[in-house]
Amino acid sequence: MDSIESIKELLFQLTTLQIAVAFLVFVFLVIGLRLILKKPPAHLTAFSGEAGSVLVSRKALQELVRSACLLDEWVEAARPVIRVRDNKVTARVELRLTKPDNLKAVCERVQEHITALLQKSLSFDQIGEIQIVVKSFTSETDDPANQQKPTKEETSLLPSAKETPDTTMPKTVEDPLSPDQATPPEKPESRA
Asked: Which parts of 24-126 are beta strand (E)?
């Protein structure tokens, strides 16, 4: 009972402004937590008909967009992020391109591939912005076919195969002349 009376006394001591501020803080906390904890839908409705709806998972849609991006020969890797904003499907795709040449044409082709996939194949009517972010370019030195072979001088500086021990495979068969044995096994003498 004492706690209830102490709460009543505290409420009567507060001004109307303090109560209004406390109420607003509480409302903003509830709204903020709801926005933070709200998960995006796991499935997107591609289209609906009389028989029902066709849903596409977000992961499947990301894989399809990734494969649509890789149709372009200049795209080496793609990482799409699919979102729904204002009932429109939007995509942000990070690309790694093979060369920096024709950047505008490559990005336009990739956007066309994604739009065609979403509109024609999956029947998404509401398509929003398709944002392309070029993250990197593959350097020519990364390609093993373009790497130069070491010169004779460079190979002479490298340790030879005889000097480097083979540590990739353990010994499974005992070597009769291994360093573990002090003397080689004796051969029986033959008398002729």
From this structure: 43-48, 53-57, 75-85, 88-97
